[in-house]
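pinging the channel bc i need a second pair of eyes. not urgent but kinda urgent?? the chain im working w is below, pasted from the shared doc
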Amino acid sequence: MRLRTTCAAVIATFVVSPDSLSAQQPAEAWWRHVQVLAHDSLKGRDMGSPGHEAAARYVAEQFRLAGLTPAGTDGWYQPVRFIEVAMAKEGVALALRDGDAWTPLAVGRDLRVTARLSTGNVEAPLVFAGYGITLPQAGMDDLRGLDLRGKIVVYVNANPKGLSAPLLAHGTRTRWAAMRQAGAVGVAAVGAGGSWVDNENTRLGSSVSLADTSLDDLGGQRINSVLNPTLMPRLLAGSGIVWDSVVAVARRGEPLPRAELQVSLRATLPTVRRDIVSPNVVGMLPGTDRTLRDEVVVLSAHLDHVGTFKGPVLTGDSIFNGTMDNATGAATLLETARTVSARGGNKRTLLFVAVTAEEKGLLGSRYFAARPSITRGTIVANLNTDMFLPLFPLEGLFVYGNDESDLADDVDGVVTARGLRVLPDPEPQEMRFVRSDQYSFIRRGVPSLAFKLGYTPGTANEKLFTGWVRERYHKMSDDLAQPIDFEAAAGFNALYADLALGVANRKSRPAWRPNSFFATPVIVP
């Protein structure tokens, strides 16, 4: 992993020693890291790019300055192999058979297709499976009674009511695993509202998968597609299901009808592939207790973002800097490493992991959780930080997973000591419990938490939070020029360091609550 010259020059400008960092205010030290990681020269830190490589070098150097020891498989690094699969620009063809005739479909207008590792030419009947969710624990199985062998499953991409946020999140994450087990060969998702836009840049999608196919959640998916809702009446013809009725029921979150359909889809899907290697960066602070040091607490934050604009050439800015998402979280990881290393006394081993490929589907953490780079010890907890959003004063926290394990007791201690509160998640439908790297550890049976600054619904802070998500999330405006509440960032960083040491030094090993669905590992595949 050679650092490119231009990136090295930028990083050299910002690298500072621990002494000079400690002489600054806490938020200033944290902000210095953010400035490096979100700098234009890193071109959005897309995994496998020179910019991400430079960011990984910077993190490794800061781990060294903080006094950590290398804990990757190659020094500070755990190289991870990926395969990027894209649809070929020429040769893609789609057709629908209803009756005896095949009718061509327009790519983009009727159907969007995303390449997967197992994408290939396919001809298969369609079956409609409601929400497509299988959760026996909640008495829900949309696949029950349907013959999915050799078929493409059409499902409504909406959320049924009556499920807890973690259970709903898990159900949507594991849709394909249940479908594949039942013999399906592909999926076609359809929305229950909103407008359909035929955008040339989204007609044919690419994807990145782990080269270790045993860890590929989407293995066997020969076609992954999204349907234009206007096509649904044609697909449902003869099934007894009326699409307008389905839309109304789905918007209420009520159970949907299911049926085998009288149509088939034929797809010719040529693909091109590219091998990529991108590292997780891993530093360790060994535990001091002979009994507890083989219990490992992982602190994680993703280092990658989405790179640069891939569409038509733009004038002006074309870089997705990823300042909040997730230079801020990676900077917190670095500051936490420096703080807890200086304090010392952690009985359990603390492992600091800056993961790659979160933006590609939590793949770097997926690999690390399944193939830890450490040679001894058992991972017993994960604390993950991803765009914690210091937009307003720190008055409370959203703690995703707080109801699931006794890590909530550790959180309560550090929050109460500061006169703060753990606030209820006002947007469970966003399923943030599974949308970042903590889920890779959760599914391996490891109690885990993730965090954001919290707000009370109906307040100005809610407007700031929701406005940021609407206007800056995964947009080029998530840059270094946006407003930051530095006092809130400093408060969060101090709280996070205290929590890390609290979990490292607690008497008992972290445990799931007895009634938590996640008390049993949910490894898929």
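so Residues 323-343 form the longest helix (21 residues). and The longest strand covers residues 271-285. — does that match what u expected or am i reading it wrong
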